[in-house]
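BACKBONE GEOMETRY TOKENS
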Amino acid sequence: MREVDLGMRDHLLYELARDLSSSLELDVVLRKVMDRVITLMKAARGFIVLVDPVTNTMSVQMSSGEADEEKARQFLGSKTVIEHVVRMGQAVVSTDASLDDRFKGQQSVIMQNLRSIIAVPLVTKGKVIGAVYVDSPFRAAIFEEKDKEFLQAISDLAAIAIDNARQYEQSEFLRQVFEAHVNKQVTDYVLTRSGRTLRFLPGERREVTMLNSDIAGFSTLTQSMDAEELVRFLNEYFQRMIRVVLDHGGNIDKFQGDGMLVVFGAPNPMNDHAERALHAALAMVREIDRFNRELVDSGKSAIAVGMGLDTGEVVAGHVGSDDRMEFTLIGVPVNNSAYLSKVRPARVLMSETTRLRLPDGFRVSDYEPMLLKGAKGPQAIFELAISVIAE
């Protein structure tokens, strides 16, 4: 390697640090490190080996100089060198491995005619997380002892970038797992507003529209299915319903057996919550119709789903303890939407407060008045017109 003066070295390291800070994708970071290392060290090929934090095993995560894709995933350098670097956390440089007493008897050195080798550990937070290895078969005296220091400086920057990328990758994975089990809107709402101490949402009053759905005759349906078939059926049904709700900006508060409680307007406030909820209800009915056609075509019975909508004020927040808490909604609209969804025969029913916000193009018909929770007398109830539902 040609001598690099201190000024040029510092400039190259600055450029590398700036380049590595531009991405948190592990593969992108590794590729940038590998390309820079090969260029600056004038090496024929290189490998970045990382230690798995769980199994503690080493594997090639990035390579350069090997055209064969299958070989590129294997470590083809001196295993003795790489194991020593990772185990001891010490850099190694050899001007001619075939004559070096430390390595000349190793099979990899003999079989591949390895000559110039340099490898340095990737260390962050006092822990070796892998190593950067470069070599040049057939050519001796390419690397010098001082090159080891330069490569180590590069690797120190790389280790920080790799560790950051790994942590970001892990946090994104945990976030996805968390969002699969906990409401995404609630997760995002808390994360964007939380500091180091806020872990939950205090009670907040919100005007919302609640949408509750319930499969008619589900108890009877469950008796005709075994456990595995029942779960598969529910997952397929909910997958369709969830997609519709999320497309319309709804927040799935909870699943209750075959029922689904959805809120429009919490935790994120919305001015058009009722309109969104009604469009979602219409889209859900259409999706249920498609689902039923598939069920009938496969020799199964169609289902009927009741839906209830009510608009009003609720209190939204986390309830529980430091060990276990759950985002919940408290208020009359929650109970009313659940009550309306269980009216049989199944249909889409709504309260007067929701009907008052009916979007253009939607039509309703009068349904029999009902005594809803908290009301002093029977309340006007409306049914979404069938003609609107038909595609």
Remarks:
- The chain has two domains: 6-181, 197-389.
- The chain has a mean pLDDT of 82.
- Residues 145-181 form the longest helix (37 residues).
- The two ends are 72 Å apart (CA to CA).
